[in-house]
Design goal:
globular; single chain; six-stranded antiparallel beta sheet; 28 strands; nine-stranded antiparallel beta sheet; mainly beta; 2% helix
């Protein structure tokens, strides 16, 4: 596994000055978010899709309605995505499709008519619900898709998820819909899709991981513990300790984070600067009973027991012995926050109380021109974050924002279409960044001079 510190893109030593970090003022307003030049000005795209810095280019490798290898057609609403190596040259890109049952009629005919015993849920007539994942087998050397197929079906609003160290993608339902005569089952679960699958997988909900408005997941490769976010204004931050490493279907323990010594801590900073940027807080974890939660009350029960609140937890990604996750509308100006969590050396064990994990507010946006509603994110091989914006407005464009390990922001790309960017993930060699345009669904492969970043104040 290539870690942040093992991989060098020739960026040189980054300055770590106290002036680098944004701070919260005494009145609770965010200080200006620091920014750097990054890769320089964006060059207008002649195709009017994605503006990139000079020297960078993208290749459209898949899009809505195209025929796939299995005879089905690419569904819409491409959201979270993971890149998993298969061999020296090939990767599996497993891509979520955030489709609700009401979206079926706008999908290609092959998806509208799709029926399979492998699907999790169906309409009364047996047609599969349209949510799920598709898999692209991509050859990095040839820069081409070798195979593309539906890999998970019959789910609802597969928003984001996360890759695992054992070669799979955890696809998360952002839905708590119940059987109502139109659909047949309850939803709100995590589903696992193996990267080496060659066709549609049997959909099995991992119910011990909780039933709630799942957003994304990240796995600690050392412990196998899965950390999960929840897309609600009063969301919690969860971890799942599996009974057996790499075998989530064998069950485990679901817990929620508590800020030590501060029960019911509010990290959102909506009313006051209760959580200063760059401050660290020790973590404790409490058990969440009855994770299947028929009443969708995990966050309410967790908060009542002391769990901390977060503002719409969304994208999450594992870095080097730590993880980052977005809180989409957190902060004094409700423009977004990024949290950082560093696990205990004894994470998930009784002895973790002697050296607790710790939580940090890593970034809080002070202006929409710098960072606006960060959603999916990934940790780049150089340790920077690449964050996908998700702000729907006729006057606001969504961007890919870079964030240095020092908390400085820069603009990497601008989406010209009125939709969101999602699913950013890097190839194992760090040379290709894959990303989705949500709707109409498009998947892009971006390459260029990653070593040319300018680490100077903008």
């Amino acid at each position: 596994m290539i870690t942040r510190r093992q991989f060098s893109l020739g960026l040189g030593t980054l300055a770590f000055s106290g002036l680098i970090h944004s701070r919260l003022g005494m009145a609770g307003a965010a200080a200006p978010t620091p920014s750097i030049i990054g890769y320089g000005p964006l060059v207008p795209d002649s195709q009017k899709l994605l503006d990139l810095p000079k020297g960078f280019s993208y290749k459209l490798i898949s899009q809505f309605g195209e025929l796939m290898s299995d005879g089905l057609h690419v569904p819409d609403r491409a959201d979270g995505m993971g890149c998993i190596p298969l061999d020296e040259n090939r990767v599996a890109l497993i891509r979520n499709h955030e489709l609700h049952p009401r979206h079926l009629e706008k999908q290609p005919a092959s998806i509208r008519k799709h029926k399979s015993e492998l699907s999790y849920d169906t309409y009364a007539d047996g047609t599969s619900l349209p949510g799920g994942t598709s898999t692209l087998i991509y050859n990095l050397q040839k820069q081409s898709v070798e195979k593309e197929f539906l890999s998970l079906s019959g789910t609802i609003r597969n928003c984001s998820g996360g890759i695992t160290p054992w070669g799979s993608w955890l696809s998360c339902e952002e839905s708590v819909d119940k059987a109502d005569g139109n659909i047949q089952k309850s939803h709100g679960y995590v589903f696992e899709v193996l990267a080496d699958s060659k066709t549609l997988s049997q959909a099995q909900p991992l119910k011990a991981m909780g039933r709630f408005n799942h957003e994304a997941a990240a796995v600690d490769p050392k412990t196998g513990i899965v950390y999960m976010t929840e897309d609600q204004g009063d969301s919690l931050f969860y971890r799942f300790i599996p009974n057996q490493y790499g075998k989530l279907q064998e069950g485990g323990k679901l817990q929620a984070l508590v800020v030590k010594g501060k029960p019911k801590y509010d990290s959102r900073n909506w009313e006051s600067a209760s959580m200063p940027v760059n401050s660290w807080h020790q973590a404790e974890w409490i058990d969440i009973e009855n994770p299947d939660s028929p009443e969708d009350d995990l966050r309410k029960r967790g908060y009542a027991a002391g769990a901390a609140l977060f503002a719409r937890g969304e994208g999450i990604h594992w870095g080097d012995k730590e993880l980052y996750f977005c809180c989409t509308n957190g902060g004094n100006k409700k423009l977004g926050q990024i949290m950082r969590y560093q696990p205990s050396p004894n994470e998930g064990q009784a002895s973790e109380t002697k050296s607790p994990g710790r939580l940090q507010l890593f970034l809080e946006s002070s202006h929409e021109s710098l960072y606006n509603f960060g959603d999916n994110l990934t940790v780049a091989p150089n340790g920077h974050l690449i964050v996908c914006e998700d702000q729907y407005s006729e006057v606001v464009s969504n961007h890919l924002r870079g964030v240095t390990p020092s908390g400085e922001v820069y603009t990497f790309a601008k989406l010209r279409a009125q939709t969101e960017l999602a699913g950013a993930c890097f190839s194992p060699d760090g040379k290709t960044l894959f990303v989705n345009a949500y709707s109409p669904a498009k998947t892009l492969a971006i390459s260029g001079p990653w070593e040319s970043l300018i680490n100077k104040r903008a």
